Amino acid sequence: MAGASLLTLLDDIAMLLDDVAVLSKVAAKKTAGVLGDDLAVNAEQLSGGLKADRELPVVWAVFKGSMLNKAIIVPIALMLSYFLPIVIMPLLMLGGAYLCYEGFEKVWHKFSHKDEHIEQHEKRVAALQDENIDITLYEKDKIKGAIRTDFILSAEIIIIALGTVADKPITTQIAVLVFIAILMTIGVYGLVAGIVKIDDGGFLLIKDKSMNLWGKAKRALGHFMIAFAPKLMKLLAFAGTIAMWLVGGSLITHGVPAFHHLIESAIFFASKLPLFSGLLVAITPLLIDLCVGFILGAVLVFFSLAVMKVVKQKSN
Which residues of 292-306 are buried (b: 16+ CB within 10 A; e: fewer)? Predict the structure, then answer.
């Protein structure tokens, strides 16, 4: 009797693991797009302004913060999905609005305070070269900013994954969400760690002074990696800002029914065009999300500037 019960238990566990594997694969596919945005945003936030020997410790600190974010988000998402499913979308929209604001604020500050931005960059470079200057506070700000942004992106990943298993037993939901949370965090920050260390890898390769073909190939690859690293960082800075508007805009458009009709009408119109209809159908939702994210970010930034100006005038 006990043996039969044990076999039944093992069979139930095997079925659960099989369901988790299948559903995790589905959830991973659905969150792949956000994963790309998450990678771009985090790589952009963690690139530049750090000493070479501090890059991996900072990435590790943000990785731990991201795991803590997901440890908070997963149980909250499960509870909200069960008790108050109606509040999930408004909360995601609020987070999306913050991403739109942060993306536009970065661009606005860079161009409206160009001289100040250049001066700060020069001071930061000088600080990195001076061994006597402690840049711990700068690192902490960098880490806090990255973890704050990661919280919103992680929330979207978890909610999307939860949507794929919403009709499944609670044990399956928990297993899938935990698996996706761990997989996505390791994937994102493993790639981020590799990206920020590209130039160091290049310097390591050019140390080989051997004159054989293998040594020359290593040095050539090393020089290419060193030259490519700053270009990649600039690309990621651009992609990270665009990703903030895309993710933030998509959260807004998914939560406002009027945007659904707008996107459907735009896709229908694009499908009837004689040229590049397939491509236009694919990119139309992205372009609308991007425009919404950019415009909302601009509105929020200028509104906050106006409020701060009024408050400053009243205080004076």
Answer: bbbebbbebbeeeee
